[in-house]
Design brief:
single chain, 439 residues, Immunoglobulin-like, 9-stranded antiparallel β-sheet, 6-stranded antiparallel β-sheet, elongated, disordered N terminus
């Protein structure tokens, strides 16, 4: 009995690979009706998922809280992805509240640039290969010039905190995307708020610090840098004075898991007219550190794809000369162990030689089988038995498992055998060799 094994070492931890999606959030009403728009999108799943980029169509809507602001007014923008470009590309279901979306809204017309938007870590469970629900992200910009300002959906990213911290960036294939909302800015003589901030890095574990830089704040003013959850500040905050030029550099510790962005403001409370942001920030899963800690490391080693069998000889039931007919028996049980821990399934095939005897042979095509396969409890893969029918010299499939995000397990494979012996086959013992190949 010969055996061929092929090993593919890969690791896929959980379902990562999603092109987009979080739980649906209500978007604020706009003074003017916003228009849902479709645009081509190119999404790149995390490399560890082992799947190609996803090209599809995103449907999105941009809304604002004030469609007729004056110069100097702050405008809150909500970017809602009504239908992401792709569904969950893997078989593994994704749990609730593991996804944090961030993105950009493109400004054109009287005012150009982009608006950073972020959403909360909130989503409904997503079944394997299921459609992603809608999600929303919000941010703000200051109107700086009178005239019509158009708003278009821009690139977005989905950060997932499930087993691993992973990102799935989705870009507009042919930017800019169609205009979804238009804001009419009037010259009301107001003061333009030019305060600006940036955060680097834009993500971290709970309790990590990030560096926030600010510019064009009031010189020597009390400034507070705080976390932002999409609608209000969070418990993460630090207060200090700006320098003589109105700039600052701060190192806040971000611990609140509800934080999806960072703002900075002058005064006792958040006020868009005297602040800047939000800029996106993602808190990775896990509680904040509370004291001395020790990092515990372990690993799971990938194994091999192998098979064994309960014996190497099968005695089929004898038939009578002149009558012939079905010479039946049972294949010796084959056990397949797939301990690779990767995305590849396997296939077990068999082919048989002619049955030779003292006075001739019986054609290999007369051997047929009825396969059966079962998986040990807890095995990630589901075993499919091959079709009943002729085996022959060309061969046939005995059992297989499909490719998936995570495959593996232990499987028992059996088959009922039947050799159709011609009625006047010469008496004597006949033998053929059934060869199984595992790939």
């Amino acid at each position: 009995m010969s055996e061929r094994r092929r090993r593919r070492l890969a690791a896929v931890l959980g379902a990562v690979a999603l092109a987009a999606g979080t739980g649906a959030l209500a978007a604020p009403a706009s003074a003017l009706a916003a228009t849902p728009v479709d645009f081509a999108t190119h999404c790149i799943p995390p490399a560890i998922a082992g799947i190609p980029p996803i090209d599809g169509t995103t449907n999105a809507t941009i809304t604002v809280d004030n469609a007729a602001p004056k110069v100097g007014d702050k405008v809150t923008v909500t970017y809602t992805v009504n239908r992401p470009a792709a569904s969950n590309p893997v078989d593994l279901a994704l749990p609730a509240d593991i996804m944090t979306p961030t993105g950009k809204v493109t400004l054109a017309g009287a005012q150009t640039g982009s608006v950073d938007v972020a959403g909360p870590k909130k989503n409904d469970p997503v079944p394997g290969k299921g459609a992603f629900p809608a999600f929303s992200m919000s941010g703000s910009f200051t109107a700086t010039k009178a005239g019509a300002v158009t708003l278009s959906p821009g690139d977005y990213n989905i950060h997932t905190s499930y087993i691993m911290e992973l990102d799935t960036p989705c870009t507009v294939t042919n930017p800019p995307a169609p205009v979804s909302e238009t804001v009419g800015v009037t010259d009301g003589g107001g003061h333009v708020n030019e305060r600006a901030i940036a955060a680097d890095p834009a993500s971290g574990n709970a309790g990590d610090r990030t560096t926030v830089t600010g510019s064009k704040f009031t010189p020597n003013a009390d400034v507070t840098v705080a976390g932002w959850n999409g609608t209000a500040t969070t418990a993460d905050r630090i207060t200090f004075k700006s320098d003589a030029t109105g700039g600052f550099t701060a190192r806040p510790k971000i611990t609140d898991p509800a934080t999806t962005g960072i703002v900075a403001y002058e005064g006792a409370a958040w006020d868009p007219a005297h602040g800047a942001g939000p800029v996106a920030y993602t808190v990775n899963s896990g509680p904040p550190p509370t004291g001395p800690s020790q990092k515990l490391n372990t690993s799971v080693n990938a194994g091999t794809l192998a098979m064994s069998q309960a014996g190497d000889s099968v005695d089929l039931q004898a038939v009578d000369f002149g009558k012939g007919g079905a010479s039946t028996g049972d294949l010796k049980t084959v056990t397949v162990q797939d301990f690779r821990g990767g995305p590849a399934g396997w296939s077990l095939t068999g082919k048989v030689t002619d049955f030779t005897g003292p006075a001739g042979s019986i054609d290999a095509g007369r051997l047929s089988w009825t396969p059966a396969c079962s998986a040990k409890a807890g095995s990630p893969s589901v075993c499919a038995a091959g079709s009943a029918g002729s085996v022959g010299a060309a061969g046939a499939t005995l059992a297989s498992t499909p490719n998936a995000a995570l495959t593996g397990g232990e499987f028992t494979v059996d088959a009922k055998l039947s050799l159709d012996v011609p009625a006047f086959t010469a008496p004597g013992a006949y033998s053929g060799v059934l060869t199984l190949t595992l790939t």
